[in-house]
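Entry:
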Amino acid sequence: MSALAEAVARAGEGRALAREGAAAAMRDVLSGSAPDAQVARLLSLLAERGETDGELEGMLDAMMERCVSPGPVPDGAIDVCGTGGDGAGTFNVSTAAAFVASAAGATVAKHGNRSSSGGAGSADMLEALGVDLSATPEMAASAVSGCGIGFMFAPAFHPAMKAAAAARRALAGTRTALNLLGPLANPARVRRQLVGVSSEAHLERLPAMLARRGSECAMGVRSANGLDELSTCSPGRAVVATPAGGGDPARGAPRGALARIDVRPADLGLQETGLGEIVPGGPRDALRMMVGAIDGTACRAAVETAALNAGAALVVAGIAGSIRDGLEAALGVVRSGAASRRLDEFVGAHGSLELLEGARRQ
């Protein structure tokens, strides 16, 4: 019996998989020889029961064994990524925040994918600006070092995951382990990450998991209204995890512990808004809003939401001592035009400035 078949049988009996058992089952999946129905069955069983940490870490172990490395990126590089799944249809906050944080001094090795719905994923947005999603790993690493920000398209760096595509389509609309693992599987193996989660149940789990795997600083963020990011339309919460013997207590993260931070927009001097203000009317509007959030020309809600998440990213990068300090720095680079210039620099080197100017004129 294959490791995948054994895992399906065990999960079907309601028993948890050991970390190595989950890793072995995932290796079968990534081999491309596993029956699609069996892959879908395992993902479905785990989702129904709720994946254990050991199961998630084992599957992640197998994914990272097969991923393509972009080569070395600067020490201290961060990722800004979310699990998705909130169903709200907001503009791509994480990508806007990544550019703003980069302009404020963070080095960003962003990992991302297309949106499963709505066309507003990080890959969709960058492709609309002419960025080549099939760029070589060396080009991605070069962008991180040269522009202070680079993008790694998940399918290009995790080609073995194509073997799970049919099972994922069969389970469309169902949150599975693979949705949770995407943000944890940065090919550059960055050790500082901001992870947006839509589920309260994962707000502490995912940062803690990253800390166990060697992250120097991992922060999970979520808005109380279910968004997988901080926003100005709802109070939010951040959870910071650092490994034992690491971290900086001055940032609210005791060594080897979880620090919980309540984030209230009004307390930070931000205007409280309605969710509809950051929900675009379609892909073209989503691109315009994302670019405008970086340039400072979008509505106040979009600009401040992007800056708020960029501020959290600056804490993760070790640049800001608090989310308030990070927010001030983020708003500063937006107002000065430094964030807009960083976007120009990246798109000029890796995309089309003509398409970028077209998005600005929309």
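The beta strands are 78-82, 108-112, 149-153, 192-196, 217-223, 236-241, 258-263.
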